[in-house]
Design a protein that fits this description.
Helix content is about 40%, strand content about 15%. It has about 350 residues and is α+β, with helices and mostly antiparallel strands. The strands form 4 sheets. The chain has a 3-stranded antiparallel beta sheet with strand order 1-2-3. The chain starts with about 25 loop residues before the first helix and ends with a helix.
Length: about 350
């Protein structure tokens, strides 16, 4: 390789020292500064790490700040060229930025002692129960002002993370979930609790087993089998004393609508289900916005009830909860239908 090495003699690889393993100190930094950039001087008196901001002086007398890592990569005085005019800060601002950045980096980089940590957390009403501190990412044991004991690493504590129990986001245990479910007369058959959106196997007071999430149970969504049994047929709130002939006609009407609905669902899938929800028991259902029962009682053609503009995706619970309620008028139903076919 051509050219003369700019590495100081005491750092030359020929003496068995690898550049990547150099343990820098402020004297070496000052010496290396002049080697890397002729006429530049390092004005700082302390070196902590290559990410720590140092103060430099360029040949024209400008004072600026840069980390040692950036300086080695080519960062120089921001005042030195016409292109860099936008970076002309006053010396007062530079020194203020230096002071703030050094204070921040010093807090992060300097390894604290367990005594310093205990003293620091005490001002927030917390108590550090650990007797050893190995690093900012190792967990320490704390006691909050309300007596809850929890573990968190020092880095998270400095960023404002505190007692998860007080915050209400502590992970629940399967024992706690079972206890709450039993208060409602239900039984939890699962042996593990993952999170509020993972299915649990439950048994209702009537003995029906079904799966639901903890968040759904908290929202008072209960056994779907019991709900169907209590709201279908003669138990439906809109049930009338229908004759057998009337029921037979309704079943034929509903069967034709179901046939047309499935055809339109395949044909207009992205119109009806743009989010791609999964259909099935306990999942999403196709809902008729203007209901089948209202269509039957008002002698509306099956093609109109099953048209894609009258179809939407609803969760099983929301669909059952409608209880035959139509959410649009006959006038709007026909207006949307004619707009579609024309």
């Amino acid at each position: 390789m051509g050219g003369t090495s700019v590495i100081p003699q005491l750092l030359k690889p020929t003496e068995g020292v690898k550049m990547s393993r150099i343990k820098w100190n402020i004297d070496l930094v000052k010496q290396r500064t002049n080697e890397l950039a002729k006429g530049y001087k390092c004005l700082s008196e302390e070196y902590i790490s290559n990410k720590f901001y140092l103060k430099f002086k360029c040949p024209k007398g400008h004072i600026f700040v840069a980390s040692w890592d950036n300086f080695q990569r080519g960062s120089r005085c921001p005042y030195r060229t016409e292109v860099k005019r936008n970076f002309r800060y006053s010396k007062k601002i530079e020194e203020s930025v230096l002071q703030q950045k050094q204070s921040l980096i010093y807090l992060v980089k300097k390894k604290r002692t367990i005594e310093e940590i205990k003293k620091y957390v005490k001002q927030f009403g917390y108590e550090c129960l650990s007797n050893e501190y190995r690093g900012c990412y190792d967990k320490l044991k704390f006691k909050c002002p309300k007596g809850h004991i929890f573990e968190i690493n020092w880095n998270n504590f400095q960023q404002g993370c505190r007692c998860s129990t007080c915050a209400g986001n502590k992970k629940l245990t399967i024992e706690y979930v079972k206890e709450q479910i039993e208060k409602e007369g239900y039984e939890c058959l699962s042996d593990e609790y993952v999170n509020s959106k993972t299915d649990l196997l439950l048994r209702c007071p009537e003995g029906h087993e079904y799966e639901t999430t903890w968040v759904n149970f908290q929202q008072e969504k209960r056994c779907p089998t019991c709900y169907r049994e209590n709201n279908y047929g003669e138990n439906h709130p809109r049930w009338k004393n229908y004759s057998q002939d009337h029921i037979k006609k309704f079943k034929g009407y509903r069967g034709r609508i179901n046939q047309l609905t499935n055809q339109n669902y395949q044909k207009y899938y992205y119109l009806i289900n743009p989010e791609g929800y999964n259909r099935g028991r306990g999942k999403y259902h196709i809902d008729h916005i203007y209901t089948v029962i209202d269509g039957f009682e008002n002698s509306i053609e099956p093609e109109v009830i099953a048209n894609p503009t009258n179809l939407q995706m609803l969760t099983e619970h929301d669909n059952i909860s409608k209880q035959g309620r139509s959410d649009i008028t006959i006038k709007k139903l026909y207006r949307q239908y004619y707009k579609l076919i024309n």
